[in-house]
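Annual report, structural modelling task.

Input specification for the iron/sulfur cluster complex:
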Amino acid sequence: MPDTATRYLCQRCGNCCRWPGEVAIDDPEIAAMADHLGLPERDFIERYTTLRRNRAGLTLNEHPGGACVLLDGANHCRVNPVKPAQCRDFPNRWRFPGWREVCEAIPVPAGDDT
Ligand code: SF4
Ligand code: SF4
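The model returned the following structure:
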């Protein structure tokens, strides 16, 4: 578990969106992202998702280099207002090994990042 004494303020560098790995998404998140992009859910699923390795649900597709299919340019998330919890929760609620080398988030004292 990450320590909770320090919180990190995202600087929107987009590096985590280029990091390879699954982004697990549930049904309400799919509905919200499809709606945000003006697509029927079926189209969103066909265009942007694939089955997770554990077959327990869907993940967002990646480009060959590992970047999320919904990343536009260097750091613009096309679904930012409704991005999945896994994206919102990084790096304060979960982290991947080596995250500090790629994430430009700034540590702030707890309670100072509202
Ligand atoms: S959904 Fe948005 S925030 Fe999440 S990995 Fe893709 S581009 Fe990044
Ligand atoms: S790598 Fe860190 S600072 Fe950069 S967008 Fe992701 S959470 Fe924000």
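The pocket of iron/sulfur cluster (ligand 2) is lined by residues 10-16, 90-91, 102-105 (CB under 6 Å).
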